[in-house]
Amino acid sequence: MAATTLRLSNTYLGAQFRRFRTRLGAPIAIKAMAAKLARLVYRMLRYGIKYEDQGAAFYQAQRRHIQIKQLKVKAATLGYQLIRVPAA
Asked: Is 34 exposed, middle or buried (0-12, 13-18, 19+ CB in 10 A)?
């Protein structure tokens, strides 16, 4: 039940859930996030680790950085080079 509420949450886990939901579909995304939440709660209880949410903006920036990195690698394998152009 907690995993389904992440859809509207403006947190790191919420952003991750929305991405999973788009890619995998709602039922699979709910199961994946429920498992992730269970692992987080286990670590907090077992090891006393405090969970600090970094926010949806951090997740999106991190995801964007990974996508750019993957694009550069793919372009290099095809014999191209990406050049950064300032936004208009």
From this structure: middle
